[in-house]
Write a structure and sequence with these properties.
heterodimer, A: about 325 residues, alpha/beta, five-stranded mixed beta sheet, about 35% helix, about 20% strand, B: about 350 residues, two-stranded antiparallel sheet, 12 helices, 7 strands
């Protein structure tokens, strides 16, 4: 075990995976010479060369589009999108090709590519450096989506994504790149996709979250006057439905916490699953604490946008008193 | 790297008009090559004309017609090796026939039957790209990836004049150039994007001029001259194989048929111009060339046409004899490792379908 920052765990993973498999390559804007604007890819170009840690043109659709062709040539590209909101130009490729090409070949060809990006707010950044775009990705058939909340999972989920035969999008909580430190297994470390993590066990109420909302829920749990369970979803697609339903059955009360805007967000999907499959286990309504249906704001008031400990405690208190 | 200059205004031509313009020379082709090219043209022409009939008969769905595009497809593919990859748009839907793909496979695609969805690795022909220009980066990526692996093989990607207005064309072309990808960017300029004429698509004097902006050579070629297309593609392929990167080829043609079976071009096109272009359409031009050269007799031409017609008769029969697709296919092939929910969805669907 090594104690690493979350971003160091990402970097460690990339070193291990490029070393393990000569067909894995990293590509993106500023990933080579600069080592990434967050240093997630630092050292890769020196160790593996400029052909396996590629500084690309400033061209998100080109990055993902050429990655499709690279897969056809036998590569396993790991594409970095520099920021959450800079990934939007690649959505065309994602929707029209990445999620469909395997199906289009009737399983004849695999597209084992990864898109990884820092996501989320709270970092006092300019506009469009703060988005939580997970729903766009989750909604696209043919791709998988994972979001780690700990350094160990940042390494393990990314490793699983790189080894997966299907396209996987990994969103990394940039707020915690350098604020979260934790034990990370050295060398090979894979956290299977599709398995949630019980971040805290409790009996009275479940907080369901992923990514940067998990540490927030951990703080909130300390201030809720009840026994609180926290389910870290980890993989949004495929979802570990069993873990969600088991926790709902155990506590009977569920609050879902999501940083992204509310409408049609991932929390809505979780709430719908609970409505369909857990209705008799529930002792009260499923509540959501989310960002608002507004553009991510100027950073001087971003704290008012972000789900806060206070809002989570408020929702939990309302539900416990239902 | 060769100096990149704005493309010439003239289009490359080999085939003359049998009167004032004499036929030129083309390197590297013998008599059997000339006839093989003719077979390819006739096969594509027959595929296209029969498809329009099959559509009217309700035997295939909406179909994108490629009449008068055959020379651009057959001429360019003939300059490639089997190891080279082809990235077609829907206008090149039947280009796989030139790689041995059964015509029934392509007919099945237009019939919306799963038998039409081939494995690209079987023919080195990528899936038909329906959205405009989004496959240009794929070809760049494949070619770049092969170069990185030290593997032989280049790529060619086909797109229309309208595609050059898309961001994906720009990003793909730029990537290809920067990565020195061995790829040919082949623009089938038929001067119409459904109802939008070329002058409403670009203010550039020629599409080949765009190549200079990427630092790659741009060539203009008569798209109805199969030999000129062959030559331009051969030169581009040699450059690619020599590690000199991409070439942009603008093949200039004219869309004499509607965009697709669902389109009525009389609403926007000059039908007199269409008739004029039809008189110099690519298959007839090449046939006249072969006859002038003494390479094609009536009997041989008839035999080649009959073979192609028979291929299509067998192909549509084969396509129509495919067993109906089972709804369970909905849940196959989206993932290598499908989620458990797919099993639940299929069980429910089966229960309801009975």
């Amino acid at each position: 075990l090594a104690e690493l920052l979350l971003v160091e765990a990402v970097n460690d993973c990339l070193h291990v995976e490029l070393d393990r498999d000569a067909s894995v390559m990293v590509m993106g804007e500023d990933v080579g010479r600069a080592g990434g604007v967050f240093r997630a890819t630092a050292g890769l170009r020196d160790r593996f060369g400029p052909d396996r840690c590629v500084d690309t043109p400033l061209s998100e659709a080109g990055i993902l589009g050429t990655a499709v062709g690279l897969c056809m040539a036998g590569w396993r590209p790991v594409c970095e999108m520099q920021y959450d909101a800079f990934s939007y130009p690649c959505l065309d490729q994602l929707i029209t090709h990445v999620g469909r090409y395997r199906w289009r070949t009737r399983g004849g060809m695999s597209f084992p590519l990864v898109i990884r990006m820092p996501y989320g707010g709270g970092v006092r950044a300019p506009e469009l450096h703060d988005d939580s775009p997970e729903t766009y990705y989750v909604h696209t058939p043919g791709v998988k989506v994972a979001i780690p909340s700990t350094p160990a999972d940042a390494k393990g989920l990314l490793a699983a994504a790189i080894r997966d035969p299907d396209p996987v999008v990994v969103l990394e909580p940039k707020l915690h790149y350098r604020t979260l430190r934790g034990d990370v297994p050295e060398g090979d470390h894979v956290v299977p996709l599709g398995k949630a993590r019980l971040a805290r066990e409790g009996d009275d109420l479940t907080l369901v979250a992923y990514g940067s909302m998990v540490p927030l829920c951990e703080q909130a749990a300390e201030r809720i006057d009840a026994s609180v369970e926290i389910l870290d979803v980890r993989t949004l697609k495929p979802l570990d439905e069993e873990a969600l339903l088991a926790s709902a059955a155990k506590t009977g009360r569920v609050v879902i916490v999501q940083e992204a805007p509310r409408t049609c967000g991932y929390a809505a999907e979780l709430a719908a699953i609970l409505a369909e499959k857990a209705i008799l286990d529930l002792r009260g309504p499923v509540l959501r604490v989310t960002g608002y249906d507004v553009p991510y704001p100027y950073w001087q008031i971003e704290d008012a946008y972000m789900p806060s400990v206070e809002r989570v405690v408020d929702a939990a208190t309302r539900l416990l008193g239902f | 790297m060769a100096q990149v200059l704005p493309a010439g205004r003239d289009v490359r031509r080999v085939i003359g008009d049998g009167e004032s313009v004499s036929d030129g020379e083309v390197e590297g082709l013998d008599e059997s090559d000339f006839l093989e090219l003719y077979r390819s043209l006739v096969l594509l022409r027959t595929y296209d004309e029969r498809s329009v009939v099959y559509h009217r008969q309700g035997r295939i769905g909406t179909y994108a017609i490629f009449w008068n595009h055959e020379a651009m497809q057959a001429g360019s593919v003939y300059a490639l090796e089997d190891e080279d990859w082809i990235f077609p748009s829907y206008r090149e839907s039947a280009i796989g026939l030139l790689r041995g793909m059964p015509a029934s496979t392509v007919l099945s695609w237009w019939r919306g039957h799963p038998a039409g969805w081939w494995n690209p690795a079987d023919y080195n022909v990528a899936s038909i790209c329906v959205p405009i220009a989004t496959h240009v980066p794929h070809a760049a990526g494949l070619a770049w990836g092969k170069r990185l692996k030290g593997e032989p093989g280049i790529a060619i990607v086909y797109f229309g004049d309208g595609a050059t207005s898309e961001g994906a064309f720009h990003e793909g072309a730029n990537f290809a150039a920067v990565m020195r990808a061995p790829v040919i960017l082949f623009c089938s300029n038929n001067q119409w994007a459904i109802s939008t004429p070329l002058e409403a698509q670009t203010a550039a004097e020629t599409l080949a001029d765009k190549a200079a902006g990427y630092g790659v050579p741009g060539e203009r070629v008569d798209g109805t001259d199969v030999l000129a297309v062959y030559e331009a593609t051969r030169v581009a392929a040699e450059r690619a194989r020599a590690g000199e990167g991409p070439t942009f080829i603008e093949a200039v043609s004219y869309r004499t048929a509607p965009h697709a079976t669902a389109d009525d071009q009389s609403a926007y096109i000059d039908l007199e111009r269409v008739e004029e272009e039809k008189r110099r359409e690519c298959v007839g031009r090449y046939e006249a060339y072969l006859r002038r050269a003494g390479l094609l007799s009536d009997g041989l031409a008839e035999e080649i046409r009959r073979e192609a017609a028979e291929t299509m008769r067998a192909a549509i029969a084969h396509a129509e004899a495919e067993a109906p697709a089972d709804p369970s296919l909905l849940f196959e092939h989206a993932y290598a490792d499908p989620p458990a929910s797919f099993g639940d969805d299929l069980a429910e669907l089966r229960r309801i379908l009975g």
